[in-house]
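# nightly structure sweep
# worker-07 picked up a monomer target from the shared queue
# config: single-sequence mode, recycle default, output format = structure tokens
# input follows
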Amino acid sequence: MIRFALRGMLGRKLRTALTAIGIVLGVALVSGTYVLTDSISSAFDSIFTENYKNTDAAITGKSPFELSQEEAAGGVAPPFDQSLLPKVQALPEVEVADGSVFGEAQLIGRDGKAVVFGGAPNLAFSVNPDRPEFNTLALVGGAWPAAGEVVIDTQTASKKGFQAGDTIGVQARGPIQQMRISGLVEFGQVSSIGGATLAGFDLPTGQRLMGKAGKLDQILVAKKDGVSEQQLLTAIQQTLPDGTQVRSADEQATADAEGTSGFLDFFRTFLLVFAGIALFVGSFVIANSLSITIAQRTREFATLRTLGASRRQVLGTVVLEALVTGLVAAVAGLFLGLGVATGLFRIFDAVGLTLPNNGLVFRTRTIVVGLLVGVLVTLVASLRPAWRATRVPPIAAVREGATLAPSRFHRFRPIGAALLAIAGVALVLTGLFADGLSTTTVLSSLGLGVLLIFIGIALFSSRLVRPLAVLSDPVARWSVVVLTVLVWPLFSLPYWLLRRGLWGPGPAGRRTAGFVLGAVLNPVLLLIVALMALRRRFSSWEPEWPAEFPGVLADRPATQIGGQNSRRDPHRTASTAAALMIGLALVTLVATLGAGIIKPFEDAVDRIFNGDYAVTAQNNFSPMPPAVAAAVAAVPGVDAISSVRGGQAQAFGETIFMTAVDTQAPAVLTFDWKDGSQAVLGELGSDGAVVDDAYAEKHNLQIGSTFPLHTVGGQTLTATVRGIFTPPPGGSPFGNVTISSAAFDATNPQPQNLYTFVSLQGGVTAANTAALDAALASFPNAKAQTREQFKDAQSDSIKSLLNVLYVLLALSVLVSLFGIVNTLVLTVFERTRELGMLRAIGLTRRQVKRMIRQESVMTALIGAVIGIILGLGLASLLAARLDEVSFTVPGGQVVIFAVVSVVVGIFAAIWPARRAAKLNPLEALQYE
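# output follows
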């Protein structure tokens, strides 16, 4: 039986390959995800290892509480006094020690704009060439920096046209400064550090630029020979003042990597979810393909049963075929994953997330997981078709056109499908609305619930095929008409012009004429088709189409047969459409949530911000030094200006995001007060605080309540609640606790602004905009925006994320496309004699193609209708639970998704239609 199964697969190479495509693509994304994240992790590990080469111990500042790596500001331990360095150097266990500072500094290009590559950080640090053992940089050209000089990385120099000896602008915590480039450097042995820019200074210059005069961020220490690591750490520990800590080099590298590790874990899980979606869709493709193949092999299995094969042997044959298919597909997917990883690097680079790369890493874990996932998914998907194969009776071997009788449980399928969908909805509702559940429980409940909903709807959708097919039949016909008329000239006209020498290399006028003809011809042809359709609608006139014109209205019988074919086997059509349904449901869900996030956000900006301009960083999210706001405040005509500072603090035993506002906040910011008033914002003083209502309820806070607030500077404030506000549904820039800027600056060594809001006399005018731009000329990393520009810029990050999600979900749509192709190809095999008979009674090849295309488009439309409705339903449930999301139907995108489904149907039909049209009628009539 093993030999029989393998020979059968070799005899059906095309069908086997088409069946395996879904698993190939799913495993490719799993493999690509692991290769991508392992490569990034390896690059970061190399970076952190290089940072502490030849180092035995590292001394850093220490926050009084554990800082969260998730917050945008305030996540860095405070610097410490430089006087600690000579004390460490004097220890008998220490061979050599060196101190440094680090932070962020913008390099300014020749165009006056900040140099930014894909949103990556702009790293600044001090360099000491006298301590080469601690230096992670390699000098490529020029010299190390002296006072007032800078070294920059070769990537920035190459892309922006700088070389050693040139002058470049540098902006850190103050205005831009012009500095001489003393040399060009590269970072250690890492081939790429992503889009990060590097700026190195001597220690005094770095301290001045980063506002850390007399301070250090780190001391690196090398021990003497014969001294153990523990002896060194113990000796250093005894000399450390409060607010500092010492770790071994390995421990410090691990601590530095914690934030990166957390990000990579989330990133890996995020991508694996989409790989799972692709595999889930692929499982439908495999199950459907095997079901069709088994139906076509009824007589073959019956003959085996007649010759003595047991049901177990038939089951084993089908399972073995699935096992081999899954194994081969998984191996192909593993290696395709290398290309996927490379593509993902480029995609994230394009959307502003340039990641470090030190070469692709292909680990054993990737191979094992990829093979297991591919084989297991294929086997699970094959179980039901394999079980059906065992029910083929021996008598079917002598019957013409024998089919499998439905099982005794078939009548319970609609009830079972409905129960699965109901159970899925119940799990989703539990995950969304039940209180007290852990994050893991919530995510598990949501994931399992959505999975059950998809399976239940897919099984039940066979009941919806017939009514939906009736509705989609004319839609499919006219969709094909419109798309054919629109697409045909775009392909044929350039070819026609090229053949006649009127297009291509040559005068610009000829090329322009070709494009103009194309732009005119499309609308004209569309108008002709529309007029003919209207005339046919209201009269019995039948147009005579020229044979060479690519029309699709002339052969109604062919399209009618295609529509009837889609209704012939509702279960097959539903199963084929289910793959596309899942992809489009998720795409619709993402689009609806995106629209539901952007709209409340814009409303929140309108409710909170009542000024004229907002000043932010160029990338819209990086913190800015207070000097930026000071420069804006000096602009003539400023009525009010207020900045929102951000950082971290600890209260009630947990780390929170804390913000601060100044005394002018009431003039440009409006809160929805539950208790308190606008005046409170300007009267917080040294101990006042306002909190959001959820935080107040959680900790039973009321007006007049006091609580300790621990800051990163080591001080403890006794905060008194002066007001309680309700954040708008779209979110706000304010943390759980907001204090005054004066109190914030007194307890935070490096205060930074998240946003600065401004009101000017006359409001938004060209003159005011020019005045703000002039004031910010010394701060190229800052920009002034009107309210509308601010909303658009802030929502761009959401739109970029949505684009990434669309690209990842497109893989599941691609899998579903191959599923439709596979079904149509297998159907062509199954209906070979039928097609031969149709050809024999006069159906032309063109009509055969239209018949297959109609069936394909109708299948795609059925999947689209169910998927879009399901996606909107899931989005409505999430919007009902999340205050930050409103249920907003993205009408334009929904229409685009429907059009995409038609395009998918048309493309899926190209190859099967050509294959069906090429059948020889005489040979087809004799096909067994």
